[in-house]
Amino acid sequence: MNEISLFSAFIMGLVGSGHCIVMCGGVASSLQLASKNLSAIKVSLAYNFGRISSYCIAGMLVATLGASFAKQNTHFALGVKIFSGIFMILLALYVMRLANTLKFVESMGKTLLWKHIVKFNKFFLPVDNLKKAFGYGMLWGWLPCGLVYSALIWTLQAKSALHGASIMMAFALGTLPAMLTIGQSAQHLSRFLNHNLVRLALGSIFVWYGFYLLIIATDKLVH
């Protein structure tokens, strides 16, 4: 089993999509309501394709960075695997709302990156065409999010920039069903995914996967 298989990335996005609704669902819904002269589904697709594009670009950048470090240090890949396992467990606690384990990472992202990127909002508002909806989605794809950062950690192990982009594409496709759900259905889905028992069940999947990554890493360390 590949620790960073595309299927695993897809499942990660699917399992964590309840968090996506909380973080970005309001933006997507308000965007559809504001674009009265455009098809709601077209606006939603354009916005989400923009968001996915940003994820892929980020995946390419991080994968390129990881590959360059791996060439210089043979222990880098092993360290990343251990870090990925720990980060996955932190994500589990975050999703289950047992602790704000990734709050500091999101705060760093907000301070170092988001406060500068959000200034470009003015170029896409009002969203009166699909190009602006796509650009707005690309902009919000850089919103500080612990779930996205956790997926990006995986791309450090990617074999190439294209592989890194593929991992983030698979992750984004996992989040897509929830993000494309609109109106009353979105409210029902959000309530379901954010129910205490559901969050604990979904979070436990991340816990299991985190320990799996740590077992794989420590096994290679021993041998």
UniProtKB/TrEMBL annotation:
Keyword Transmembrane helix: yes
TM region(s), chain numbering: 6-31, 52-70, 76-96, 133-156, 162-185, 197-217
Key words, A-Z: Membrane, Transmembrane, Transmembrane helix
Name of one Pfam family that matches: DsbD_2
The Urease accessory protein UreH-like transmembrane domain, residue ranges: 9-212
Source organism superkingdom: Bacteria
Keyword Manganese on entry: no
InterPro entries: UreH-like_TM_dom
PANTHER family linked: HEAVY METAL TRANSPORTER (PTHR42208:SF1), HEAVY METAL TRANSPORTER-RELATED (PTHR42208)
UniProt-recorded name of the protein: Cytochrome biogenesis protein
